[in-house]
Structure prediction request, 71 residues.
Amino acid sequence: MAKTKNFILRIDSEMMDAIEAWAADEFRSTNGQLQWIIAEALRKAKRMPKRRNANAQKNGTAAQPADGDNE
Prediction:
């Protein structure tokens, strides 16, 4: 499992209400919804770091694309 970092996020109450409602609609926690939103934004901007599968990490081989693309 990846390490996590804690930080404080200041967000206005209207935006937080919208995120909480969206999270409930998706059966996610508010934290999980925020992580998903951020991951989607990073993926769409092509800034999401590539994940390496467990075998590649052990063997020191090249990283595998996280989204299944073979670029």
